[in-house]
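A brief tutorial aside. Many learners find it easier to grasp structure tokens once they have seen a single protein encoded end to end. The record that follows does exactly this for Short-chain dehydrogenase/reductase. Read the sequence first, then the structure, and try to relate runs of similar tokens to stretches of the chain.
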Amino acid sequence: MTKTWFITGASSGFGRQLTELLLERGDRVAATVRKPDALHDLATKYGERLWVGILDVTDSSAVRDIVGKAFAELKRIDVVVSNAGYALFGAAEEVADAQIERQIDTNLVGSISVARAVIPHLRQQGGGRIVQISSSVGQSAYPTMGVYAATKWGIEGFYEGTIPEIAPFGIEVTLVEPGASRTNFASSSADAGQILDVYDQTPVGDFRRLVASAGLAMFPGDPRKVASAIIASAEQTPAPRRLTLGSDAYALVHTALTERLAALESQKALARSTDVDA
């Protein structure tokens, strides 16, 4: 059975891959982009099966308007993919205030705005699926990626609280945690702070040298395979709470959770000792 999808940030990366694959298989896609001609080739090829809206997710009023328009014109949307976002690289003191604000406004506040806009429509139509593109960095982080990680940890925390709120209405959520994939994640869509020499002989410098020397080996993920796995997850019932994609993502998340659980267990007695005496 064909589905109707709503995808933000569809001009590149996973958003573009998802849009292409869904149209190829016969689904209908409402895609939002910031530049009017970003999907001109797909619009020419697929006609009315591609609905295009111009949207910057940092404008919450525009998010509500475009979501409302899409639901009104398409009548029903089965799956919402909140994908719009970008990377910011730099140690904490290397990134500027404006860069931090823009990163949070796009990746975190923008994603929350999309969720808040679509939930009433999904509730009123009797249910649906939300797919939030997070990151393996939403469970751990690398040096120079602290601010980016903060937005991904933030959106995961938002959905941990929101999922039980909307479950009674038949709305399910999947947090997708890809590793490094061969999209334009670290190139045209990225931002970076100034580079301070003082960090050269620290884990920051080590990480930068690793990225520079490893080349494509640092990006093992195939965007088309990632997109295919996301599409397949929309058929699963119940929806997987998290979808970790990529060998690097699995290794990073597995290590982080194992170490975190071990640290928690070591504090079990201390935790209990701070309760009020019986």
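Self-check: The chain has one domain: 4-273. If you spotted this yourself, you are ready for the next section.
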